[in-house]
Please model this.
Amino acid sequence: AQRVTQPEKLLSVFKGAPVELKCNYSYSGSPELFWYVQYSRQRLQLLLRHISRESIKGFTADLNKGETSFHLKKPFAQEEDSAMYYCALSGYGGATNKLIFGTGTLLAVQP
Amino acid sequence: DAGVTQSPTHLIKTRGQQVTLRCSPKSGHDTVSWYQQALGQGPQFIFQYYEEEERQRGNFPDRFSGHQFPNYSSELNVNALLLGDSALYLCASSLDGELYNSPLHFGNGTRLTVT
Model:
């Protein structure tokens, strides 16, 4: 079955510390993986996707097919990074876009 | 560009009633997806509409139905409401035909409470 697991409900770090939000997935084909973020009082928005291989707001994520993981990393956390982060999987290529979300991790960056 | 707009923002209904939620996609988008987000959970895919037809459906009963209009806006209807239908309902729009999965643009959601 297709599944996304985010083992941590809450991750609390101090400003300037490294951040790693864990995401593991279960999918038998070639998945498309995404990270979505929801800042306080804002709507859910795309942060990055693995096919883009880009860094957004200092965050990167590498797809590891051997470990079926797509962890989100940032070397130095900022207070403005505090938000809810969702890892998501799409099992369909092309234009169809049915996402399977994890339960989310709340990142709290302390000053 | 107002992005994806949803109405109403909050709704309180009684068990057994029916509800209709509305969504206008981001300008230029032609595909609308609906998600249910229960408290403490991630969004769960309900269904997707494209060219006024339901293209894909998640694991939701037939009590959940939808519609897409020629202007790409969409409605989500839920019949015979249950307490467990209480959730935040998110609408997301995207553009079909892009080379890669078109990123979803989400609305702010409609908070449905069933009493």
